[in-house]
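Write out this protein's structure.
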Amino acid sequence: MDDIMYLDNCATTKPCSEAVSAIREALDKFWFNPSALYRQSAEVGQKMKDIRKSIAKTLNVREDEIYFNSGGTEGDNQALFGALSGSKKEIIVSTIEHSAVYQSCLRAEEMGCTVKWIKPESDSRISVNAVTEAVTEKTHIISIMHVNNETGAVNDIELIAKAAKKINPKVIFHSDGVQGFLKLPLDLGASQIDIYNFSAHKIHGPKGAGGIYIKKGTPVKPIHYGGPHENGLRAGTENVPGIMGMGAAVREFAPSIITRRNETKKIKQGFIDCIKSVPDVVINGGEDEENYSPYVLNVSPFGVRGETLLHMLEENNILVATGSACSSHKKGTSRVLSEMGIPDEVAQSAIRISFGFNQSYDLARFADVFKKSVMKLRQYRRH
């Protein structure tokens, strides 16, 4: 495992040592049900309270506006169906959202909701004007992701939310923050964003844990029922080991968001330089530092199938993706790249490279393997 170059951090990240230790401690020492009344349970409850407080501080929001859940998919479903509350209302959403939002909106259409689909610009970003032109007094919820999980495009969600609420102050603005949390600075408390969700396993925490910010006063109802956990929003005994692992990751990485972002920019640029040394390779989306996450890079080498290239890189212990892990077993072209207007032959060549926190990479090794792999596959195609 030591010689694996892992470049699929958008799919999941390796839990940091602090998270692993916290999970082990939770399983060994803090295994009590936090809802019970004895002292040991109160200690577990205090641990959870401290973690909630640290996440709230990172986002500059109130402690009672943070709710724990199982991760990104549940958070997206909670945001949409919790805000809709079974009513046939109007939704505005982009066509390149994560499947958890996209599929939820398809389901909402089946339930009788009106869904206005916003197409991205050719650079895969969602423009403010495209959203505001769709807003009416009937619009109930808008969902625009913070960072696109395939191209790394960063949407100005603060500006979009502000502009939308000028037209309809009652609209609920949700953003899937799974690829943005702890990667890009964000002051939710100063914004007009109402709901923002995140996932632990994208920030070197464990799978099965995450959270959602819901601004005080935002009308969101539970989507499943039971006990009064999470202030009545999410029934079920909390995943204490997962929450403690997530809390450890937040404590470890929250103080260094800006520093890591700048360091990762340099790493990404090094990979771009390597990739551009190979003829006929394009970057899908863009590469400017302001509008794209330094943690994501999507490229297409002409004349090569992305899946074939993925497996050739894998044979050399370099792990990349062809798109979203949630769609990796589906046949066909990436929905995101198609919506950007990228031709099928280019989209079918795409691979996604995504970086983690505080990881080092052997650029010379990557450049050598990438170039040899692309050239060999092109040679096969000619024959």
